[in-house]
Write a structure and sequence with these properties.
The chain is an alpha+beta fold and 96 residues long. It has a single domain, classed as Alpha-Beta Plaits, CATH 3.30.70. Helix content is 25%, strand content 30%. The chain contains two helices and four strands. The protein has a four-stranded antiparallel sheet with strand order 2-3-1-4, with helices on one face.
Length: 96
């Protein structure tokens, strides 16, 4: 089992939901407003007068075999407009 955390420009939300559906993922926790700044590239998403855009974030629990295709599709989406911002991180989860 993997935990997949995604932080992304809010404009990507519907596309990410569609990618999840196409990859067989359906359960998630969603934060509709998150603020942040990337470590290396992209613009801040702070919701203020200087940086008005905001992020959304999701935490998804997924079977290991579904994650590679999901990450690849997210990478392809991000490559369309890297300045908008989309980052994906995974952790291995122990099920008790």
């Amino acid at each position: 089992m993997k935990a997949v955390f995604i932080s992304y420009n809010q404009a990507y939300h519907e596309e990410i939901i569609e990618i999840m559906r196409n990859c067989g993922l359906k359960g998630y926790t969603y934060w509709d407003v998150t603020k942040g700044r990337g470590s290396f590239t992209g613009e801040p998403h702070l919701g203020d007068h200087a940086w008005p855009t905001l992020n959304g974030s999701m935490l998804i629990m997924a079977q290991d075999n579904l994650v590679p295709e999901f990450k690849e599709r997210l990478k392809n989406l991000d490559s369309v407009s890297e300045a908008m911002g989309l980052r994906c991180f995974t952790w291995t989860i122990d099920e008790d």
